[in-house]
Amino acid sequence: MKKYLIAAFTALAIAALVSGCGALPGASRTGSVRTVNIYGTGTVYVVPDIARVNIGVTTQDADAATALSANTQDVNAVRQALVALGVAEEDIQTSDFYIYQQQQYVPVIQEDPELETASEPQTLFVVQNTVLVIVRDLDSLGEVLSKVVDQGANTINSISFELEDTSAAVAEATQKAIDSAASQAQEIADAAGVTLGAINYLSISNGSTSPARSAMMEQAGGDVPISSGTLIIQVTANITYEFN
Predict the structure, then answer these.
(1) What is the C-alpha separation between 128 and 67, in angstroms, rounded?
(2) Which site from 38, 44, 83, 194 is most exposed, i.e. has the minimal number of CB atoms within 10 Å?
(3) pLDDT at 2 (0 to 100)
(4) 192-228 tens-digit pLDDT
(5) CB 57, CB 74: distance < 8 Å
(6) Residue 94 near residue 112, CB atoms below 8 Å
(7) What's domain 50-162's superfamily in CATH?
(8) What distance, in Å, lies between the first and last C-alpha atoms of the chain?
């Protein structure tokens, strides 16, 4: 079935070449210009070199000042642990901070055990402080997560692995996308017995990044096991060629 689909696509492309039909967004053309439009995709696999993770401390108490004091103490301990593990101060940034009231129902002790259990509302003050941390030594990430929990962190989420500078990978994927489109256009032109001319229209998509696969990083002792994986950077080129 796949061979039949490929053959059908090639036949349609050749027919388009011979007829010279096709809309060209944003391109100027005369009635005698014949064109073929091709999409090429370039894919590059890269290993991430940084991790971004949100680390937070949530505390609560019936007294707002007490809740805030406890939260501040734990957050400072978390920050000190991060710096001690080699995380730079400029890579630790507060991302969220909240203080709000919350109603909690607590059971009331009954003197008579035959009476139904009752409860009464209690107002608590909740303090949440979250910092966005950039970890540049990925081998230490498991230890980082373990240590901050030991120092009072009780919220860890949104761990993402990234390539800090994607310019070189995007440039490589762009060249692959253009080469792919050119190769396809040349194959179609050869099959149709025509000669490719100038590029009439060119559009390049922004490089998109997505996870590819997981590669477990070895962690020693009781550190949290972390998978950094591989990232895919993909670019699409939309090229319209003239032909003779």
Answers:
(1) 10
(2) 83
(3) 37
(4) 999 999 999 999 998 788 877 544 444 434 578 887 8
(5) yes
(6) no
(7) Protein of unknown function (DUF541), domain 2 (3.30.70.2970)
(8) 33
Calculate ∠ Cα 69-72-223, nearest 5°: 130
Burial-class residue 143 by CB neighbours within 10 Å (0-12, 13-18, 19+): buried
Could you tell me the pTM of the whole model? 0.71
Q: Token pair for residue 204?
A: 């390049």
Q: Which two tokens stand for residue 233?
A: 């950077």
Q: What is the pLDDT of residues 232-242, one digit of tens each?
A: 999 999 999 99
Q: Which residue from 110, 3, 111, 93 is spatially nearest to 56, judged by alpha carbons?
A: 93
Written as one letter, the residue type at 41 is T
Lowest mean pLDDT, pick from 123-127, 140-144, 186-190, 216-220: 216-220
Residue pair 135/147 in contact by the 8 Å Cβ criterion: no
Helix (H, G, I), strand (E, B) or coil at 26: coil
Q: How confident is the model at residue 13 (pLDDT cuts 50, 70, 90)?
A: very low
Indicate the burial class of 4 (C-beta count within 10 angstroms; 0-12, 13-18, 19 or more). Answer: exposed
Q: What angle do CA 22, 25, 30 make, to 5 degrees?
A: 60
Tokens, residue 160: 């993402």
Looking at residue 115, what is its pLDDT? 61
